[in-house]
User: What shape does this take?
Amino acid sequence: MNLNTAILSIRTILVSQPEPASNKNPYIALAEKYNLQVDFRPFIHVEGVEKSEFRSQRVDLNDFTAIILTSKTAVDHFFRIAEECRFEVPTSMKYFCISEAVAYYLQKYVTYRKRKIFHGRQTIVDLMDSIKKHKKEKFLLPCSDILRNSIPDTLNEHKIDFERVVLYRTVATDLTDLKSVSYDILVFFSPSGIESLLKNFPDFKQNKTRIAAFGPTTAKAIVDNNLRLDIHAPQPQTPSMSMAIEEYIKDHDKKK
Assistant: This one.
């Protein structure tokens, strides 16, 4: 794979996420403003665990009276595995969702107004007030294989009775069709994206390719893999990735 560039001009950007459904997104605006080519390609994707693997974790869904849902993906895979195991989710089940968006997503599977649903603003800390009011419940935490430690650590800190179960995995996408494509900036949003890059292209040399990272764990993964971190968001002046890229382009143009 040749993801390097022999020139300093920034003309091409690869964003390691699915292409937004709407053209009204900041990357398209950035492309139009600076005459850039912006491509989208997920470097990772989610695969649900098989029913046999779920059963090997020795988790009995009948044991739980409440569920902590940290994403829409967690919602999908909980109800998927429940259906595959012929488990009828009781109407008395309580749902504790990381955000309002996740709570509303439950409508895909349950009659919203007839269920006991609670939600935070965006983090497990926001949700703890609701969880602590129901400490007598037995909580199930459906998650991926790379769940952030902050979630179980927070639950343990407050002595919440919960059990974690892996229902889906984040895996590297096959990117071998990118062999002959070069980009001036590669944009990553998770450590898994960096792992996918190096798994697909073990001989990758960064050279003059800029690497952008969103979030501290992604930035750390870049540095830990001996790559150069050129663009980092969020920052006080650039809270979004598109803003950080634009600021970098402006600074680069000034130095030309």
In short: The chain has a mean pLDDT of 90. DSSP finds nine helices and eleven strands in the chain. The chain has two domains: 12-43+173-227+235-255, 47-170. The longest helix spans residues 241-255.
